[in-house]
Design brief:
This protein is an alpha+beta fold. The chain is built from 6 helices and 8 strands; from the N terminus they run αααβαβαββββαββ.
């Protein structure tokens, strides 16, 4: 049993499982509600996250925006979920992209938050704001891979409701 758990943890650890933020209900926590209302721009969200959150891979569990707020640590999925929730609250059109890399665990992807600003797409990777004014999601994936010095094998774009908008494989 321990070997199976170790195998699953090592094999499935990553950011590929997204939290269903569209079903998230604001908790009755005045401090959290005030924070959500204060963070009105991507820059403000990034600044808050950089000052308050620590990156820590969480195997097989995805945090809600509130749980991340409370725990102060999470992985790229938790960060992208938090960002998408906050920006959607302020009427940004939001998406999450999960990127899978060549020569890496095929079951573990990297999640980034994408949003539309003035009819162009920009994104936040963990808490790094990347204002690239992309026309298409693929431009974002290519740019993020360039930053990480990686080659993507597949990416999946999800809207706020976690519907798949685009899924592209790179052979």
């Amino acid at each position: 049993l321990i070997l199976i758990m170790v195998f699953l943890t090592g094999f499935l650890t990553g950011c590929e499982l997204l939290y269903g933020v569209n079903n998230f209900i604001l908790p009755n926590d005045e401090d959290f509600i005030n924070l959500v209302e204060e963070l009105q721009s991507p820059e403000q969200v990034c600044e808050y996250m950089e000052d308050n959150f620590t990156y820590k891979p969480l195997a097989l569990y995805n945090l809600s925006p509130y749980e991340l707020y409370q725990m102060k640590e999470g992985d790229c999925n938790d960060f992208s979920t938090f960002i998408v929730f906050i920006l959607n609250y302020h009427f940004y059109e939001t998406y999450q992209i999960v990127i899978y890399y060549k020569n890496e665990n095929p079951f573990s992807g990297h999640s980034i938050a994408v949003f539309r600003e003035y009819d162009k797409f920009n994104f936040i990777d963990n808490w790094e704001y990347c204002k690239i004014e992309a026309e298409e999601f693929r431009e974002i994936v290519e740019y993020d891979c360039w930053l990480r010095n990686k080659i993507w094998s597949k990416y999946i774009v999800y809207n706020y409701g976690l519907d798949i908008i685009e899924e592209i494989k790179n052979f």
